[in-house]
Design brief:
This protein is α+β, with helices and mostly antiparallel strands. It has a single domain, classed as Peptide Deformylase (Alpha-Beta Complex), CATH 3.90.45.10. Helix content is 26%, strand content 29%. The chain is built from four helices and nine strands, in the order βαββαβββββααβ. The strands form three sheets. The chain has a five-stranded antiparallel beta sheet, with helices on both faces. A two-stranded parallel sheet has the order 1-9. The longest helix is centred in the last third of the chain and has 15 residues, at 163-177. The protein is globular, with a radius of gyration of 16 Å. 33% of the residues are buried.
């Protein structure tokens, strides 16, 4: 089932999310719905707060980046094959010189800005079977993970922008929070009531 994506301005996007246990209600269905929602919106990542759930869960599928002609064949293969579920994740290390990349967010449609992030991360998490993992990622994969990880920490990519950039996009952000935007996927705006 395709779920509505929560728009900028909803308080759930600013909450630090809570850990979940392996008996979380209908977890497999939730994952299926999240993947379907992400693919429907042409995203490469989706965090549970973006569908209104303040839990430490996000998923990533970087295969759309594999179409980029500027990448080596090895990079394309790595991106094409990367699909993961992250439960109760904790980034334990970020390393390297920060680099800029133009980021967007399904909760903040039609706003894209350069965000600086470190290129290498080490993260501990549980996979979709609740098995513990600790891995190191770099490049675009690390960046997508960092962006989604920020969501479970209550941080949006716009929070990482300079005060000047924030002022320049303030009107666009206000319009998004009021639902004054056209998108080709389902969204829920802060002033809308949740449908049961």
């Amino acid at each position: 089932m395709i779920l509505p994506i929560v728009a900028y301005g909803d308080p759930v996007l600013k909450k630090k999310a809570k850990d979940i246990s392996k008996d979380y209600h209908e977890f497999d269905i939730l994952l299926e719905n999240m993947f379907e929602t992400m693919y429907n919106a042409y995203g490469v990542g989706l965090a549970a707060p973006q569908i209104g759930l303040p839990i430490r869960l996000f998923l990533v599928d970087t295969s759309p980046f594999a179409e980029d002609d500027d990448l080596s064949e090895d990079e394309k293969r790595e991106l094409a094959d990367f699909k993961r579920v992250f439960v109760n994740a904790k980034i334990i290390e970020e390393q390297g010189d920060e680099w800029a990349f133009n980021e967007g967010c399904l909760s903040i449609p039609d706003v894209r800005e350069d965000v600086f992030r470190k290129p290498n991360i080490t993260i501990e998490y549980l996979d979709e079977n609740f098995e513990a993992r600790k891995e190191t990622f770099n490049g675009l994969i690390a960046r997508v993970i960092q962006h989604e990880y920020d969501h479970i920490e209550g941080v949006l990519f716009t929070d990482k922008l300079s005060s000047l950039k924030k002022r320049l996009i303030k009107g666009r952000l206000n319009n998004i929070s009021k639902g004054k935007i056209n998108v080709d996927y389902r969204m829920r705006f802060p002033n809308q009531k949740k449908k049961r």
